[in-house]
Design goal:
Elements lengths: L3 H13 L7 H10 L4 H7 L4 H9 L8 H15 L8 H7 L11 E2 L10 E2 L36 E4 L4 E4 L4 E3 L5 H10 L18 E4 L1 H6 L22 H8 L3 E2 L7 E9 L2 E9 L18 H14 L7 H12 L3 E5 L6 E5 L21 H4 L14 E3 L7 H5 L2 E7 L2 H6 L4 E2 L3 E5 L9 E6 L23 E5 H9 L8 E5 L2 E2 L3 H17 L8 H14 L1 H19 L26 H26 L5 E3 L2 E6 L30 E8 H8 L5 H5 L11
Parallel strand pairs: 3-6, 6-9
Antiparallel strand pairs: 1-2, 3-4, 4-5, 7-8, 8-9, 10-11, 12-20, 13-21, 13-22, 14-19, 15-18, 16-17, 16-18, 20-21
Helix pairs in contact: 3-4, 10-18, 11-18, 15-19, 16-18, 17-18
Length: about 700
């Protein structure tokens, strides 16, 4: 009999084996079936069109890591576009008899989705389907295909309605007989076929999510609404509530946040098998309207479609979009991996290089918040990092007569500017070390005490070193990117102190790549693609919310995930019972990293200033105001096409603002009459807040 060591060695050999691509002709067929050109595929894989042609005619083969990405893409297309005459694997499994001689498991029909393939259940206990008429919604524009994983044939989640119909992804409808929360948990784990595979080979599978409508919540013995003095998202069922007592009596557990809008019910894992179900209760405001616009008013099948697309492209929701953004970081960079213990020869959890590890890490005093124990206990009085997004308005006396006569003020909003800043961002992975009078090194992430007050900046532009755009008045703490930009402008910098990290890495890279792809794919579903001209792009952006409200909600949730995830890296204490100097729950997470949040915001603000300066140099235009990732310019017309710089060839000038759906590029945000805006500015009016309000800070989530 093979030993455990031999088995692990064999498995690792298979994992490390290079993927086998389908024949060249099949590669071309799959790409054409997906409607993707060779040029677009080449752009996605960061290669040339000729290379793609060579792969599809058999002249050459891609190499890792491009090989792995190409394999993943082809596998996804193969699941969506099987060869003519070939039934999908799941359908074949449904028709074939079981190896033990038992009859095949029940198939699951789809609701209102014509010609959807049957999906084989993982066990004979899978629930039967509801008839198609049970769905109360029109046919979706585009069905979401669940991952090709036999363990989770019905996708990552389901929306349970009061009649027992559980609406899943791809239009499927399952029968759920549960009448109590405990029965629902048992059904979900053993019969539903719900869940999602891990996003990293060292990670964990996503637990199934059950979303409860108000009717379903009442049927299971839960109140339709949670009432109290606090925000509803902060409320919890009391411990003596019958449902909570029943859950505990059945030997299930609740996490520390109790039975609230996002309740996790679990038992300790037995071996490698997890026993955990995530519940989301719609009538308890589980889905914030700001992050999921209009979703709670949709029919259950449409809610399943929205959440299913998000789960497939981002992650199965586990709370607010801020929570999901943080969970995505950990899912893509798991803290541990299996390593061999040299003493025993067994495989044990070990540190995963590039991750934040399993233990929380205290920040340097200037990186912390004033109420943090490292500040309170040490009596720190040396100041703090102030790396925040812009909130700046140009003083009225710096407006020229010509600017005041221009009839329009046009707002340009950068698409997911903070996501773009996370790309290839090197951050610290180890604890900070203190240095006195260090030599500045732009490659070392950390916090630097340096005087930048001597740097001259055009007064018609905000200072790149402060969130309010005012000139620094003396030494202050700055993140590495801010100090590096001062050097880029040609000034000498002489740090007085620094807190630096010796171990570094691009921790957010996979997080950035997955969210960028999700954002681009969702925009493409709404008709906004890279191939559009600037005129077509602006037209498409005006109409995309009406094209498909469900996909528009997914796009809003992705954007909220970016900002919320970054903001939650510095989650502040919450609740009236908190006392200054106490450790709050968020500090127990390895992902409580205010220095990483500061690095993202610093880079985004520097990127914004660089574009502002380039615009001034190319066009002579200066902004009226900047709020977070939105900049307002005076204009002779109501379109950014009236003032953005274009070369004689018609192409946008590099370095300035450009239109497009890619993160970091701009879109039209709002138009106001200039003379009216100037008149109100004299009365303290902030045009940036008017054009795009409520988006000045990165939400730290709940």
């Amino acid at each position: 009999m093979a030993s455990e060591e031999e088995l692990f060695a064999s498995v690792d050999a298979l994992l490390n084996e290079e993927p086998h691509l389908p024949p060249p002709a099949e590669r071309a067929r799959l790409r054409e079936a997906a409607g993707i050109t060779q040029a677009r595929l080449a752009t996605a894989l960061k290669t040339t069109t000729q290379s793609v042609k060579n792969w599809e005619n058999g002249r050459s083969e891609p190499k890792s890591p491009r090989l792995d990405a190409y394999q993943r893409l082809l596998n996804g297309w193969a699941a969506k576009y099987p060869a003519p005459g070939n039934a999908p694997a799941a359908s074949v499994a449904a028709m074939a008899p079981a190896a033990s001689g038992e009859p095949a498991a029940s198939t699951v029909e789809t609701a209102d989705v014509p010609h959807a393939p049957a999906v084989a259940a993982a066990t004979a206990a899978r629930p039967a389907a509801r008839p198609a008429a049970a769905s109360r919604r029109p046919a979706p524009r585009k069905a979401v295909q669940s991952a090709a994983d036999p363990r989770f044939p019905h996708g990552p989640l389901a929306v349970l309605d009061g009649d027992g119909s559980a609406y899943g992804t791809g239009g499927i409808v399952l029968d759920c007989p549960a009448t109590t929360v405990v029965e629902l948990v048992e059904w979900t784990l053993h019969e539903s076929g719900l869940g999602a595979p891990k996003l990293n080979r060292h990670g964990k599978d996503s637990d199934p999510l059950i979303v409860l409508t108000a009717a379903a919540a009442v049927k299971l013995g839960l109140p339709e609404r949670l009432e109290g003095h606090e925000q509803r998202r902060s409320l919890r069922l009391p411990e003596d509530h019958p449902v909570v007592k029943h859950v505990v009596k059945a030997k299930w557990r609740l996490t520390q946040r109790g039975f609230g809008p996002w309740a996790r019910i679990y038992r300790k894992a037995q071996g490698r098998e997890r026993q955990c179900v995530q519940l989301a209760i719609l009538s308890w405001d589980a889905l914030d309207e700001r992050a999921w616009p209009g979703v709670t008013e949709m029919e259950p099948a449409d809610i399943a479609r929205v959440l299913g697309v998000y789960a497939t492209r981002v992650i199965t929701p586990r709370g607010s979009t801020a929570v999901s953004g943080l969970e995505l970081m950990t899912a893509l960079r798991p803290p541990t991996r299996a390593v061999r213990d040299e003493a025993s020869g067994n495989w044990v959890p070990g540190h995963n290089p590039g991750s934040l590890g399993t233990e929380p890490m205290d920040p340097a005093p200037p990186e912390a918040t004033p109420e943090h124990p490292v500040v309170v206990d040490s009596g720190w009085r040396g100041g703090f990092l102030n790396e925040e997004a812009y909130q700046w308005v140009r003083p009225v006396d710096l407006l020229s007569d010509e600017e005041c006569t221009l009839p329009y003020a046009v707002g340009l909003d950068l698409n997911t500017a903070f996501l773009a800043a996370a790309a290839r961002l090197v951050v610290g992975l180890s604890a900070p070390d203190h240095f006195r009078a260090p030599t500045f090194n732009p490659k070392i992430p950390g916090s630097w005490l340096v005087d930048l007050s001597h740097i001259e900046v055009n007064p018609r532009l905000p200072s790149p070193f402060t969130p309010d755009g005012t000139r620094p008045t003396g030494p202050a703490w700055y993140q590495t990117h801010t100090v590096a930009y001062a050097q880029e402008l040609g000034y000498n910098v002489t740090p007085l102190e620094a807190y630096l990290r010796r171990e570094t890495g691009a921790y957010l890279d996979p997080w950035h790549d997955r969210l960028k792809e999700a954002y681009a794919d969702t925009l493409a579903d709404l008709g906004v693609t890279k191939e559009l001209t600037d005129v077509e792009f602006l037209t498409a952006m005006e109409r995309y919310k009406d094209a498909d409200p469900a996909m528009a909600a997914v796009l809003a949730a992705i954007k909220a995930t970016v900002k919320g995830g970054i903001g939650k890296l510095r989650e502040r204490p919450q609740g009236k019972r908190y006392k200054e100097g106490e450790r709050w729950p968020a500090l127990q997470r390895p992902t409580w990293r205010p220095d990483i949040r500061a690095a993202v915001i610093s880079k985004a603000r520097v990127n914004m200033h660089r574009k502002l300066a380039n615009m001034a140099r190319m066009t002579g235009l200066y902004p009226l105001a900047v709020l977070s990732d939105c900049v307002v310019y005076p204009s002779s017309g109501d379109s950014p096409l009236d003032f953005l710089p274009y070369a004689a060839s018609g192409k946008p000038q590099p370095g300035a603002f450009r239109l497009g759906p890619t993160p970091g590029l701009a879109k039209l945000e709002g138009v106001q009459t200039m003379l009216w805006a100037v008149d109100l500015m004299e009365k303290g009016y902030n045009p940036a807040r008017h054009v795009k309000g409520g988006d000045a800070v990165l939400d730290e989530g709940e």
